[in-house]
Amino acid sequence: MSQKPAVTSSSPQVKPIILVSYPKIILLYPTFFASIIAAIVACFLSADSVHHQTTAVTFLLVMTINMVVLAFDFPRTTSLIVFFVAVTLILGGLLMSIYFPTLLPAVTDMLNKIEPKANATFYTCFAAMLGLIYLAVFIYIRFDYWEVRPNELLHHHGFLSSLERYSAPNLRISKEIDDVFEYMLLRSGRLILHPSNEPRAFVLDNVLGIDTKETSITKMLGALQVQIRDERTSDT
Prior knowledge:
This protein has about 240 residues and is α+β, with helices and mostly antiparallel strands. The chain has helices spanning about 30-45, 50-70, 75-100, 105-110, 120-140, 180-185, 210-235, and strands at about 15-20, 145-150, 150-155, 160-165, 170-175, 190-195, 200-205. The chain has a four-stranded antiparallel sheet. The longest helix is centred in the C-terminal third of the chain and has 26 residues, at about 210-235. The protein is elongated, with a radius of gyration of 26 Å. The chain starts with 16 loop residues before the first strand and ends with a helix.
């Protein structure tokens, strides 16, 4: 009489895989850190220092690029290259107007009239505001996340810990990288879960570390299917 191999679904060594769909605001973390650095720099500058303007321009530049990433999708490397070329041309034109004022006098005159400045309090308030939003996001995801186990897919949601269960074997998963920038910033992407006995698919946007998550799920479910197949073979 052949002995049946142990099925992974009952093995305590298998750890569940947690999937969290984050809101897009987490992609603003470069602006968050830029505001903290700007606040520290502004604390050491005198009120009439010309470096206030440089700090403000740098902060606004980082925030603008970050907002562009948040507002538009760059699905291909080509669009990413076009974006960097456009930014390089704009920055090159600004530097030329600064160091060669007679080359583009109209642009130089316009830039001379723009003097953005902010004190340390402004940057601190901005960082605190964004930090509170991040704190609220990290509290919220504690009440809305997915858990992949070898034999079932669980959806935890709501402040009362509502739970929905779906069958995990034969679960179909798809990975989509819709934005190259988002993938570069947080290795995030879209993960689509389609349980075999469920007519609808579940779309999770902005899943962090999506490559690692997809590999772990595929490995877990693939190992389960192989062991079940071996068990059926031993019965025959």
